[in-house]
Structure formats: C-alpha cells, structure tokens
Amino acid sequence: MSQTKAINPLRLLPLLASIVAISPLAIDMYLPAMPTIAEELNTTPTAVQNSLSIYMAGYALGMLVFGPIADRIGRRRVVIIGLLGFAFFSVALAFAQSIESFLTLRFFQAAISSGATVVVPGVIRDMYGRHTAKGLSYVSMIMMIAPMIAPSIGSFILHFTGWRNIFLVLAAYAILILGFVMWKLPSSMPKKKNRKWLREFANNYKAVFANKSVRLDLFTSMFATFAFFCYLTSISYLYISHFGADEQTFSILFAVNVIGLFISNIINSRIVERFGSRKLLRFGSIYALFTGTAFFTVLQLDLGLYATAASIFLLLGSLAFITTNSDALVLNTFAEKSGTATAVIGTLRFGSGALAGPLLALLFDGTPSNFAWLVLGSVVLVLAMQVLNNVQNIPTIRAS
Q: PANTHER family annotated for this entry (predicted)?
C-alpha cells in the first residue's frame, strides 16, 4: 500500500514517534494546570478532570472514522488533516471561556488528532513486515520521552505565563511536526479504489471482528491497556495521598515507572525476531498475572511506598510486552486494512481508558483497593484471552 519499504526505517521512526507523542503531550501537559483552569473557568476540579475521560472518548471515536479513511485516501493525507485539526482546536482551547466550551473543544481536539496517530502502526507494519513488534517497540521507546517531560513542560509554562499558553505550545508542536511530515513522510495510496465507500468501510470492520484469533488479541490489548489507564488515573492518589510522598518523590517514581516500560520495549525489540510476537505475547500474559498478583498482594498487605513502586515497575513492564505484541499480530493479519485494524485497537484501548476513571470512582472506599482489584481482574482476563486463543488454534495446528 505504501512506498515506505524503500526508506531506511531508522530515519523515519523519530518522526513517527513524534506524531504518536501528540496524545500523551495533550493528556499530560495540562495536568499541573487543572486547579488553575478550574478556578479561572469558575468550575470544580472534578469537572476539569472529566476532560481526560472526554479526551479519551473523543480519541476512540475519531479512530473509528479516520482508520478506514486512511485505508481509502492514503495515510499521509490523513496525518495532515489530523495535525492541522489538532492545531486549530488547541488554539481554540487557549481562548475557552467556560467549562462547557473547554470540554467540547477537548473532545474535538482528541477526535481529529486521532487521524494523525492512527496511521503510524500501518506505516511501521509496511517497514518491518512480520517483525512489526520490533518497530512498534522502537517507536514506543522514543515516544516515552513525552509522558516523562510533559508535566514538567506544563509546570514551566504555567509558572512563567498561564495555562492558556500550554495549548498554544501544543498547537505550535503540531505545526512543527506537520512541516516534517510534508518533508519526510512518504505518500501511501491504497491499491484499489472502490467507489462504494460505505460498503468498504463496513466490510473492513466486519473482516477485522470476524477473525476469531484477532478478536481475542484485540481484547487482550484492551484489558492490558485498561490496567495501564487505571494506573495513570490512580497513581497520584496512591503515591501522594495514600503514602504521603512529596511532589519531587512522585516525579522520580513516575519517571522510574516509565523507565520500566522503556526497558521492556528494548528487550522486546531485541528478541522478537527470534521468538516471534505470539510467544512473547503468551510470556507477557503469564508475566502480567505474576506481577499483577504481586502488586495486589503488596497493596493489600500495605507494605509501603517503595515496595508498591517496585511492584508497579514490574507490572508496567509486563503490560508493555502484551500491548506491543498483540498489536503487531493484529496488524500483520490485516496488512491492507491496517488503518481499520489500528482504529479498532485504538477505539477499544481509549474506550476502556475512558471507563477507568468512572469505575475507579465507583469502587473507591478511601483506600487503593479499587486500583488493586481492577488491575488484578484485568491481567486475569488478559491471560484468559490467550488461553482461549491457544485452545482455539489447537485443531488448526493438528490439521496442518
């Protein structure tokens, strides 16, 4: 579908990572400004916090639309639309005068930005083929810089100017990346141009969901990502409110957790060609059950801040093995429908992320038990999906 095979992957990966980084930057950069935003817009902190769930919901719905569009009109065009739209709504957010307009603009900012990021896995799949998990690991490693530095950037901007400039900086970042996209990202057009757009749109989704093995891998990725969003939603409460850590200690432990993800992606990129994504996905599922159980036990026994941080470090590393390899397996199954496949992955992923906050709030009893139970339940479901996948494929293996 594309011309990316003729390009040195290592030259294009930093640009692809920069495109994917838009989402964590948009999520994390304004976190330090939430109390200020609530005060200036004359609303409650909870209302501003809801913008995170609204952003994830908009992102999930946007991917449903832009994935098939990318398969239809080409990836480069969709990236350009996504970056321009993200820049426009970021500027609009900088001038929001009410919480209603702020939440509405955040939804549309997320929805259109998904057009830029939905194409990236497909480009990586074109470059790496059956070793797609290796390329995804590389991009994840580069992209992880964003969540590490985003809150600090937001705090810096907030200290010297105001929260509105955070969104202007996001707009400037999108325009900068757009320039590199116009320069470096190759065009990619579909091989066939069927005029029946709506039928093709529906058939692509039907093909993805009809594949039983892919369906189980999709749910595997979704449950693992749900556990990760539970972590993102709960970590500040766990470290600061429950254990009494100061802001500096929180920043250090948060960075260490990101390093755990980074290490797992390095390991995955080095061994995936030897073992394959399926074996590493099964390993990650078993490993996640172990780390999730350890995390649950540490919290239930209240073993303290650093024991909890160590268990989270291991837990996040296991989740990285799961999401990277499950995504690669799905993309390799639908090479010509990679936009649609990525849209399904992203919709399930961010849709589950949007549910994390409400479920945590519903189960909250004044302790981190809600976090512990949801994480344990997620990793159990991850392993269950892979056990079902293995059982489902036994007749096929014997027949062959």
A: MAJOR FACILITATOR SUPERFAMILY, POLYAMINE TRANSPORTER 2-RELATED
For residue 232, the 8-state DSSP code is: H
DSSP summary character for residue 188? B
Output the six-digit token pair for 388. Answer: 């079902």
Q: Are residues 170 and 225 in the same domain?
A: no
CA 123, 148, 374 angle in degrees (round to 5)?
85
Instruction: Mark whether 102 and 137 lie in a shared domain.
Output: yes
Domain coverage including residue 269: 207-391
In a domain, 142, yes or no: yes
Task: Please give the single-letter amino acid code of residue 24.
Answer: P
Residues 215 and 340 placed together within one structural domain of the fold? yes
Do 141 and 276 share a structural domain?
Answer: no
| Angstrom distance (rounded) from CA 331 to CA 122 | 7
pLDDT in tens, 50-101: 788 888 888 888 888 887 777 677 778 888 999 999 999 999 999 999 999 9
Cα distance between residue 329 and residue 174, in whole Å: 30
CATH of residue 178's domain is: 1.20.1250.20
pLDDT of residue 71: 67
Structure tokens of 210? 């009809």
Instruction: Say whether 322 sits in a helix, a strand or coil.
Output: helix
* Position 396 in a domain: no
Burial of 101-135, coded b for 16+ CB within 10 Å and e otherwise, reads ebbbbbbbbbbbbbbbbbbbbbbbbbbbeebbbbb
- Our CA angle for 210, 268, 334, nearest 5°, is 20
* Residue 59 contacts residue 350 (beta carbons within 8 Å): yes
Burial 288-313 (b: 16+ CB within 10 A, else e): bbebbbbbbebbeeeeeeebbbbbbb
Nearest one of 169, 200, 380 to 288, comparing CA atoms:
380
Q: How many domains does the chain have?
A: 2
Residue 197 lies in a domain: no
Q: Is 99 in the same domain as 141?
A: yes
